[in-house]
Structures are given as C-alpha cells and as structure tokens.
Amino acid sequence: MQPMNHWQRIEAAIGGEATDRPPIALWRHFPEDDLHPDKLVAHTLQWQDKWQFDLVKFMPSGTYGVEDWGAVSAYRGAANGAREVVQPAVLRTEDWRRIAPLDVRQGSYGRQNEALAAAARGLGGRVPLLQTVFSPLTTARKMSTEKMFADLRCFPDELERALMVITEVTIRFALDALALGAHGVFFATQQASHRLLSTAEYERFGKRYDLMVFEALRDKARFNMLHAHGDDIMFDLLSDYPAEMFNWHDRLTDPTIAQAAERFPRLLVGGIDEHGTLLRGSERDIEDQVHEALSQAAGRRLMIGPGCVLPVAATDASIRAAVRATHQFQEGLACA
C-alpha cells in the first residue's frame, strides 16, 4: 500500500478502511508553561515536529474553563501535569446564581484560542488539530468540586440554570476554536461514571448538555473525539454520541478494545497504559502492549493513544517504543 499522510490515515481509520499503518497520537501537559500562549504554542509545535503523530490534541491547562468564573488553580506536581482547583468559584448553593455568560474572546478562554490559532498556523493544516473542550457538567464540577453532587440531588434547578450558561459559553468557545483553525474538539467528560452518578442523573445533567454542544458543531467540525474519563464509565450511554473517535482508559476499566469495537462503529483511541506500562515497563513491554491492543481490533478502527494524558516523566525511549510498535504492526501482519 502507498504511504498515507496524517489526514488520509485518520479518515480511512474512522471509516474502518485499510491503512498503510495504524494511526497513533500521544499527548501531554506542559505544566506552568501552559499558562502562557507563546510557550504553549512552542511546546505544541516542537512535540509534533519531534514525533509526527497523526493527530494533535491541543493541551491547554485543564482548569482554563473555570478561571474566568473566579476559580483559582495551581500546579502541585501532579504526575500527569494537571493543575487542580484550590479555590472553587462555587462554595454555597446560591453561588450557582453568579454563573453568568462570559466573553470567550477574553480572559482564560480567550488565551486558549489565541494559542490554538498560532499553533494552527504553525502546523499549516498538515495534521488534524483538536481543541480540548470540557463537558458542561465537568466544568461545573471543577468550579464547585464535590459540592456539585449534593446540589445536583438537592437543588437541581440551581445547577441546571448554571449548566445552561456553561453550555452556551462552551459552544461559543468551541465554535471560535473551529473558526481559528481547529478541525474539531477533544470533548472530555469526567462524570459519566457509574461510581459518581446514576444513568438517569447523567442523562439529565450530563448528556442533555453534551449533545447541545455536539449539535452546535454539526457540519462545522471535520471530526471530534469523545473522552470518557475515569473508572466504570457509561460506555453504552455515550456510544451514540455523534463523535468520530472514542477515547477511554481501556487498560484500567471496561470495556476492552475488543468489546468496544462491537459497540462503537467508528474509531477507538487507546491501547496504552500510560501510568503503568509506558512509565514503568521495558521497551519490549510497551511494544507488546501496543501489538496486543492492535490485535484486539484486528488492526482496524483503532488509533493507538493513552487512556488520558501521558505522565510528564514519560521518557523519549518509551514514547519511541510505542511509535515503533505502531509503525511496525502492519509489517507484522504482512509477514504472518
């Protein structure tokens, strides 16, 4: 088969067609530097130039979506490079009423798309670029931390009013990202877990607003990736979302890749245990894990990726092993 470019490889993989090799994309945070648009852009371009992944997930700080509403965050050395909220914007139930519309071209929201636009110019359209967008319920939890769960059950009307405002802001931010050079969004939900909510609760407070975002992006994004964070995810509830790619912690929680391939008809993203095998395993361990994941999918409809985000301590040698194993898999099939 003739070599494919990044776009051809991703689009063929989404459609379940044969590819010259399986696609691969890995991503990581750049703590502290991700607060500065110019530094984040430089890291993004250097990362892609070094590894030539088939997709670029833009990596703003994970708390960018709550800071303009008054939440304060800090990086405290988390292994994955993520910031954490140290001062919530919502401390009491009545604080939900203060969640008002924002100008997404200003403040923290504005900085993320300013940086994305510069990265898009630097990448020149050679590779798909996704802006990271959090689900409205995820944003609500980040701005209130654990209190959100009590208010969801005791004061649902207060939360739902705020969720509508958050959804409208999320949509405007995502549409701006597309206008500035993103080809879609990496849509992350961190609450679609049976450990956190019932299915009925997620349908009311999560899925309803998630689908508003996806509907606003319909016919405007080339493709989107859905990320379900955490354990015991509601895979079946999420599997009918209009997303072309589905990413989850397949090495830590059900379903397996083989099981997911029977329930999601487009491109799965995963296969790497980023905090286990990639961080602590040998290069052979990493290669074996990549090949085992691709074998589960029979080499089709799987992009090798992390369950969430690489630890900042992941070494070049480990990343290189994952890339090498992915690039060589098709050759292995041909020789089998």
Automatic annotation (TrEMBL):
<feature type="domain" description="Uroporphyrinogen decarboxylase (URO-D)">
    <location>
        <begin position="9"/>
        <end position="328"/>
    </location>
</feature>
<dbReference type="InterPro" id="IPR000257">
    <property type="entry name" value="Uroporphyrinogen_deCOase"/>
</dbReference>
<dbReference type="InterPro" id="IPR052024">
    <property type="entry name" value="Methanogen_methyltrans"/>
</dbReference>
<dbReference type="InterPro" id="IPR038071">
    <property type="entry name" value="UROD/MetE-like_sf"/>
</dbReference>
<protein>
    <submittedName>
        <fullName>Uroporphyrinogen decarboxylase (URO-D)</fullName>
    </submittedName>
</protein>
<dbReference type="Pfam" id="PF01208">
    <property type="entry name" value="URO-D"/>
</dbReference>
<dbReference type="GO" id="GO:0004853">
    <property type="term" value="F:uroporphyrinogen decarboxylase activity"/>
</dbReference>
<dbReference type="GO" id="GO:0006779">
    <property type="term" value="P:porphyrin-containing compound biosynthetic process"/>
</dbReference>
